[in-house]
Amino acid sequence: xxxxxxxxxxxxxxxxxxxxxxxxxxxxxxxxxxxxxxxxxxxxxxxxxxxxxxxxxxxxxxxxxxxxxxxxxxxxxxxxxxxxxxxxxxxxxxxxxxxxxxxxxxxxxxxxxxxxxxxxxxxxxxxxxxxxxxxxxxxxxxxxxxxxxxxxxxxxxxxxxxxxxxxxxxxxxxxxxxxxxxxxxxxxxxxxxxxxxxxxxxxxxxxxxxxxxxxxxxxxxxxxxxxxxxxxxxxxxxxxxxxxxx
Length: 246
Fold this sequence. Notes:
This protein is an alpha+beta fold. It is built from four helices and ten strands; from the N terminus they run αααββββββββββα. It starts with a helix and ends in a 6-residue tail after the last helix.
């Protein structure tokens, strides 16, 4: 009789170890996330952390329950394993819990999408972004500055730190995709259609961008750079670029 009790204590110890292990797994996945360069990117990263954490917890719970069932209800010697035909409360529980998890993740996704796609009035800067084969054109509305890329020189977009910037995105010819990996954001540039979105980059920095939609032979050349600078440096850049300022 002593041996089975020792086995049960060992399995209980396994459960105590499983909980910290799941917590460490969630923390490790969160630590591997890129550092978003915008407030909108932070919203997306936060949602990603929730999804990864939920996946680890659900997956770990399922594996742990399978292992516990195999060990707890296995046959021993000539004694047949336990036989259960129904357990209504348990069946309701394992049906309701996944539904609640999916509903919660759906609600969080809707909230994040609304935050990312929000367009408050009067942005500090508005940039018309136009994709063409095979480069980009950035026009600063009301500031007299237009930056056009060439196959030999990728354009650089300069933005003020901590201020809301609105992008008005379209294409002159085929479908392109405006993608800044460091912003955790991508939006298609479609001929005849205008996509509008906004970002706030709180801290200075430089992020590479590229077209993420295969658009033809020169697709690989459609790169650009986004440089976020303090307001005073941004105004100096406008003057140097020939603009009259806002």
